[in-house]
Design a protein that fits this description.
Two copies of one chain form a homodimer.
Chain A: H1 2-9, H2 11-17, E1 37-46, E2 53-57, H3 61-78, E3 94-98, E4 114-119, E5 122-127, H4 130-143, E6 145-147, E7 150-160, E8 166-172, H5 180-192, E9 197-204, E10 207-208, H6 217-222, H7 230-242, E11 246-253, H8 258-263, H9 292-308, E12 313-317, H10 324-327, H11 330-338, H12 344-361, E13 365-369, E14 382-385, H13 389-397, E15 401-404, H14 416-420, H15 434-437, E16 440-447, H16 457-461, H17 464-473, H18 481-497, H19 506-513, H20 520-526, E17 529-531, H21 534-538, H22 553-556, H23 562-576, H24 582-597, H25 601-606, H26 608-611, H27 614-636, H28 642-655, E18 663-665, H29 668-677, H30 682-685
Parallel strand pairs in A: 2-3, 3-5, 8-9, 8-16, 9-11, 11-12, 12-13, 13-14, 14-15, 15-16
Antiparallel strand pairs in A: 1-7, 4-5, 4-7, 6-7, 9-10, 17-18
Helix pairs in contact in A: 3-4, 5-7, 9-12, 23-24, 23-29, 24-27, 27-28, 27-29, 28-29
Chain lengths: 687, 687
């Protein structure tokens, strides 16, 4: 019947290429994360309009809606309208069997495995519980491709299970508020790459983002009206649950808490009034750890939030208390003395222990940043490490569970390769005993939001976070960087088709900057730059505040320039081939000529948003000229004068300095290699 | 205060270019449609985070929500977070005064004028009623640009009023169902270009798309479950009303009505069963105009719909009855004889008159396609002309009002320039008396949906419909095609920022076709092709049906290739300059080289969706080579051999034939001009 349906639905195409069918080569497997075990063949199973799905075994609403979502995504993937859900398992092209229910409230460590067997005539997905079924559906979707004979998935046998049980993404919604629909599309992205924890950083100095019915001044005075209602929170938790994702709330205490004090100054260690913080950094306000009224408040507040957020983990932050308010408060100093607390660290430990009692009385496990690990804490807490594997290993040796975030700070604008090289089980953690290693639960990518808003957050999270997701799911020997980048490029567009905007927003943002003039020259520049890396350079703006518009080229530019990486690879190939490849030489020339001749002046004159990039545009042109001259010398087999080389290298070095535009020219380094190779190097010796 | 706020919010940028401020030249006015009267200066009014709006005069909820929407769009335009609505009119940067309410149910011919006065320190928008206020807000938004000193609008004085009272867009939701959210974003687009009628083609052979509570089998059996509930319809009408847009429903009768008969075969002129039609074309089923039960049904049905749709115009279709069911039915033949009806046209006129009585009893004006104009119809009906100005003029002379759609069929894939040349007051209508001319209400762009779905409809409507909107709003002397294209390119991105997907969906669709491989080579081809024009070539697919996926390159390709138009203009400049411009010659070479060298084979091998474009890719390469050779001859001042020219022109001609891919290579014609100029032409005579 399938063939017949195909004849009816896409007959012209079938007729057109029926003579062109060739032996199909088994291609690379375009999955991210890579499954833990698979056997791939060169055969295929066709996907056409007769495609149908049937669910057997354990039944629940979440599975039905997962299948509906799966069919919607498959329709989007193929452009075919697929809605049929077959009632008869014997007829289904994709038969799904789920053994039993997962826990009502999802727990870390539940079985998330699944098996997917694809034959030429049909596929079977089996899982012990719905968590595995959800993952298997995502794998199936990623396998779908427009093959030579029609849409198809490869015939394959997959047995897949994650390496780590906690694969998280943290989003800071305090520094910039991120609306619910933006969170939702990012949950769709998480589901696609099998991440299972959404860590919601809900309060910080710059905003308190969730409705409290008991203490309404928290959101009324601490959020500029930008907060989630409890109904929205419940809806989001259900949305996440549907996708096999836990929601762990974080309320950062006792520091990072200015926004609480706008409505409730009595919680602070110094008298009010307080205003919502508009700047970035570590600020003085901190809760007063010496007052019973503070604990009474927190007891009531956490009770309310523990009921709202069903997850059995509750994050209390605990990072970066500078202690200044404590030092300046005589009553707090008295308290330290009278309680034998020798330092502010010990004072915070006192606070954390009292907080932990509140949290554990509500049957929750407390999670916090490195700072909460102090002597005498109970063993059920979880340490999230921004400091690194050393802290995690130390914690594990004492019997504490831990999560790695150091190395997964995606707001630092590092390359996917740099994040991909970070492994929760490396350095100090690699040396743990097997027993201790079980305490390393996994890791979390952290999206701090000083410089991201609803429009730009997708491009800061994706696609790089997919590489982190693979690190946390796939076996440790899945670490080939070239394979990662090849698959990342593809998954990136798949993620975009889920509604994420990291690719599709790029040109519209450039259009806005350039007043909807022809943006081609702007794109030439934007394609080879990246935002400055790390906090020092990011915070170098003159007095940045939370009301600054995120409308500059640095906001539109991608964290990682594919064009620059590809150019760098071309240069490496050229040099590795002793500069003999004429086609490569011509290709490098074409790129360098494009950059050298790119003229942004007419656009820069018109738009104030472009004036800061004038030096950048000039530098790109200058160093591209240096690169062209270097290739000239190489091609002519001529040794350049020493002062030429010195001058060019100085130019390149100067072009690598951050400018006020806060952008880096990423082709500078490979151009430097060309200039260096132009004299006395491997190229000349062989010509 | 504004300067101070600017210093706080964007200080770095200000510091950076403070030395670069130059005398500002008054640029071209980037508005579409162009206003009927304006005086533009070179001065500007700054838009910064102190921007505020105040409403005075007549107050209503629609104005408040319009201001909220305006601020949201302004925020999106600038990347600044603008939410302030000033209470004190004296402090507002944009003061809006509305004299009085418009009619509760919007009527064609209401005053839609507005005045907008922008001074360096503030702006004032005034309008007789909210319709003008809505239009003025759109004008203000279009004026905002990133100027050399910051976001700004020019200092300008505008008095604007539309040329025609009926500026419509028809969307056929029967042949492909278009979900409500897609309709809504298109209403946003209509508002942006000041269109005021959404004509909703709700029923046809391929689907009945609105819920009837009286006759539920209409949607239950006639829609595949794809229909709008009455709640959705009411919501959409409110959405349109908020944007100054009327909603005119169309139920096509007595032909184009197969979908009705699936549930109610007794309405038809031949016995059932009926199935929803899956093919395209003109089909036999037609209502039986001889049965009282048909009129009883329509009386009840139209009563229900007239209550649902408040607009005082009601479209009954009336087009393309082929008469075959009538001819084959002896009872109908008897009826014609007994009633002295000499033709099927007269029989349809009998039907239409009875229908008109039903419609006018409900205090609605009947609208229909050309065919409904038959002797003896009352003068309150409106003729929508798919036939042309001749029909309109004939109707106007008899006192009937008319709308032009001939020339505005955007599904034919014509260029914006071709639609822009069509004027409702031209040819036969231009010769009408002033009195008769008042009967020409305006026009409607028509989006028939044989080959569009939710994913592709935006790119078929926009940006070309903005050119039609200008034709219907702006004075008749606004007709410069180059100006239109320059402004259309800009408005196109503005429309995209409202949520329309005509630009942002292009690359994702190419990505899907190419399996998320590097689509650069595919884009090189896609950028210079257009879908075949007109129905004959569009319908040339082998048995197309409504279930065919719209996932081919013809679906992704834009109706109009900007790259091809620009290339054509370059060739014209080159030839007009007697081929002496070396820079132009080099530019043409670069483009032709890109097309000649473009290699799609690796992509085509992998994806069945690309196999049909192999001949197209080959043709582009071949004719680009011909173009390069032509420039070689021209540059060398050498006369090519006659047979070379004959061969190349044959190649070009062959490349212009539609292929199975249903795409046209739009650079073929300018390449032909190059080949022709290469021998004995103006170029050689002057070298």
């Amino acid at each position: 019947m399938r063939t017949l349906v195909l004849l009816v639905s896409v007959p012209l195409i079938l007729v057109f290429f029926s003579g062109a069918q060739q032996a199909i080569q088994p291609g690379p497997l375009n999955l991210m994360p890579m499954p833990s075990n698979y056997q791939l063949t060169s055969d295929q199973m066709a996907i056409d309009q007769s495609f149908s799905v049937s669910l057997t075994g354990h039944q629940e609403a979440r599975l039905d809606s997962a299948v509906q979502r799966f069919l919607r995504n498959l329709s989007r993937r193929t452009g075919m309208s697929l809605t049929a859900q077959s009632a008869d398992p014997a007829q289904a092209k994709l038969l799904i069997h789920t053994d039993q229910a997962s826990k009502e409230v999802q727990e870390p460590g539940e079985d998330e495995s699944y098996s997917l067997e694809v034959t030429p005539s049909g596929a079977k997905l089996s899982a012990p519980n719905p968590l595995g079924t959800l993952h298997g559906l995502q794998t199936f979707l990623q396998l779908v491709e427009a093959a030579p004979a029609g849409f198809a998935v490869p015939v394959i046998n997959i047995h897949d299970t994650p390496r780590f049980v906690w694969r998280g993404l943290m989003i800071d919604v305090s520094r910039h508020f991120i609306p619910i629909d933006v969170i939702k599309r990012n949950l769709d992205g998480m589901e696609a790459v099998k991440m299972n924890v959404f860590h919601w950083h809900l309060s910080d100095d710059q905003g308190f983002r969730v409705e409290s019915k008991k203490f309404p001044k928290l959101q009324e005075m601490g959020s500029d009206g930008l907060y989630y209602t409890q109904a929205q929170v419940r809806d989001l938790i259900a949305y996440a649950h549907d996708r096999g994702i836990r929601v762990v709330p974080e309320f950062d205490m006792p520091g990072h808490s200015t926004a609480w004090f706008v409505g409730y100054p009595e919680l602070a260690s110094a008298p009010g009034q307080y205003q919502i913080e508009r700047h970035w950094g570590v600020f003085d306000p901190a809760m007063d750890p010496t007052r019973d009224r503070v604990y009474d408040f927190l007891d009531e507040f956490i009770k309310e939030m523990a009921a709202l957020f069903p997850d059995s983990y509750f994050h209390i932050g605990g990072d970066e208390v500078n202690g200044k308010q404590w030092d300046a408060n005589p009553q707090i100093q008295d308290f330290k003395r009278s309680h034998g607390l020798k330092s502010n660290n010990e004072l915070q430990a006192y606070f954390t222990k009292r907080l932990e009692k509140i949290v554990s009385q509500l049957h929750k496990n407390m999670v916090g940043w490195d700072e909460i690990l102090t002597p005498g804490m109970p063993n059920n807490i979880v340490i999230q490490s921004w400091r690194g594997p050393g802290s995690l290993a130390a914690a594990a040796k004492q019997g504490y569970r831990g999560l790695l975030s150091n190395g997964y700070y995606i707001d630092l604008m590092w390359s996917a390769a740099r994040h991909y090289a970070v492994d929760p089980m490396s350095e100090a953690t690699a040396d743990l005993t097997p027993e201790e290693k079980r305490h390393i639960l996994g890791g979390e990518a952290t999206m701090w939001s000083e410089y991201v808003g609803p429009e730009t957050i997708d491009s800061r999270i994706w696609p790089r976070t997919a590489a982190i997701a693979e690190k946390l799911w796939s076996p440790s020997d899945v670490r080939d960087v070239n394979s990662m980048y090849a698959r990342l490029a593809q998954i990136s567009w798949r993620l975009d088709s889920l509604g994420l905007t990291h690719n599709t927003d790029y040109i519209p943002m450039l259009q806005r900057i350039a007043n909807d003039e022809d943006t081609a020259p702007l794109q030439v520049l934007a394609d080879v730059v990246e935002p400055v890396k790390g906090y020092r350079d990011q915070f170098a703006r003159f007095k940045p505040t939370s009301t600054d518009p995120l409308n500059r080229l640095v906001d539109a530019a991608r964290p990682e320039s594919d064009a620059a990486r590809e150019f760098s690879n071309l240069v490496d190939s050229f040099l590795a081939g002793q500069c003999k490849d004429a086609a490569l030489s011509a290709r490098l020339r074409r790129l360098l000529t494009k950059w050298h001749e790119n003229n942004l002046e007419p656009l820069i004159e018109k738009s104030f948003l472009l004036q800061e990039i004038a030096p950048l545009a000039q530098n790109l042109s200058l160093i591209s000229s240096a690169g062209l001259q270097a290739i000239d010398y190489i091609d002519r087999g001529e040794e350049p004068a020493d002062n030429w080389k010195t001058e060019q290298l100085a130019l390149v070095q100067q072009a690598q300095q951050p400018t006020s535009a806060q952008l880096l020219i990423m082709v500078a380094s490979p151009i430097q290699r060309l200039v260096e190779a132009s004299s006395g190097g491997a190229c000349h010796s062989t010509k």
